[in-house]
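Shipment paperwork, digital attachment
Item: protein structure file
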Amino acid sequence: MQNPRDVLTPDSLAMLQVIAEAGSFAAAARQLGLVPSALTYRVRQIEDALDVLLFDRSARQARPTEAGAELLREGARLLQEIDAVSHRVRRVATGWEPQLTLSVDGAISPHTMMELVDAFYAMAPPTRLKLRDGIMTGTLEALTSGRADLAIGVTIAGSSVAGLQQAPLGDMLFIFVVAPHHPLAKEPEPITDATLLQHRAVAVADSALRGGATMGLLGGQDVFTVDTMQAKIRAQLRGLGGGFLPEPMVRPYLEAGRLVARKVARPERLVRVNYAWGGPGFTAPGRALQWWLNQLQSPATRRALLENHHHF
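Attachment content:
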């Protein structure tokens, strides 16, 4: 008995599709340029290898059995995938990367990112796109460790990495906010470190696999740590603690009175946000990466990535 892999070839799957569409072995044989006996023999080989009956031969018509219908469905899907793979390979040979991974910091607008993804896919590129969530040093680490091809929202310098290239997105203001029912909402301004130390801080965990950074925390302070900027906002809305957040992200909550901004006895935190690519062994960007770099050269796009947090 033959192995199913030996008989389930693209040609044999296409042949079964012709038989099902023609409705009889004789009609299918004419379309395929075969004698009916040769066609019947090839079908018997497939049936023997699978140990199933694919067509009901009790009538003049070739009706697929349940097993045959399933093979026809899966066969059609496999043939489509083979066509898609061949198309993708041909496109990749023209300079498109098979996959492009973007490490995107939690302070970057998800709405603008999805708009860019939509525009990228509108070109019908062969490149598969993958987005990774990043926080603080983890955003850049994904790039420098080879787990990403482009990092968007880098706030930590990576100038010591060979071949790394960076360009600015812009500056982002981080402000200290609490819920209106939180005790710090009523404290006299500017709030001192000694006063902040008496209250819990909400922090986002750095996504770096090694090391990591903290931002805006005091030694000995009680800390509630979450994984995303969205979780940090939700925690602070509930009054579970206070902390610094990007002003564009909390602007609607401030306007609605669900959060209040408080001045603290520290310098204003205006953070330079960059995007980065390259690294050790990098030569030149492929067509997919080059498309993203071209988009990031637009001042309007850079501004939207930092500001557009509330598009509905």
